[in-house]
# Entry
Amino acid sequence: MTRLQTPPEGISQETLAGLVTEAVQQTLVQHGVLLDAQALVSASALAGSVAAALPFLPPAQRHAIDSFKGDWTALISEFFRTVPDRIASGNPRVSDQASGRAPPEAGRLQNIAERAAGLQSTLLEDWAGEVAGSTYLEEKLRIPRSTLHRWQRRGEVVALRKGGRKHVFPLAQFVDGRPVLGISEVLSAIANPRLAWLWLTRPAPELSGRVPIEMLREDMVADVVRAARTVS
# Structure
């Protein structure tokens, strides 16, 4: 583990955030980014807070974040689209986060992230169940490769990276040669496919201990999607 991956010695998270905030603000000004004064301050402060938080996270959480291969820009944009509405509605979770208090579900989400980090050193089949590549799905389930890849691009099917650039697909998500309804909504809420499939295949406290993928196979889509959004 490099020094940059460990909490800095002799500096607090708050101080580090201030230093990064100042550096980001100077960079934005130097490159002529057109923001009004308040937006410039907010953008710099947000960047500083995010950058300063990461070094102080437990190793398991940092590992889980490092393993995320999705679109960070889209994920951050989606987060910021929800913040104004939460603030306007007085959502207690926003207040808790702003005051430094972890929301009630933080412990459960940390547990999921830690379990996901542990998956990196575990054989895929040992935790994901039966998986198959596009050749098997085309031959056995009669799913054309073009259709499978289209589902993958649209986020309508869980695709898990195995090895270099190869992806495999958990078989439990297919019914009658198609992904079960609700998969795309779950992936929208939980962008990391490994985290999403981990949540889908384990008893969920949000669903009274039921397994989400089993509920999707029983067409209980609304309940599962609502729970996934709560987790996200």
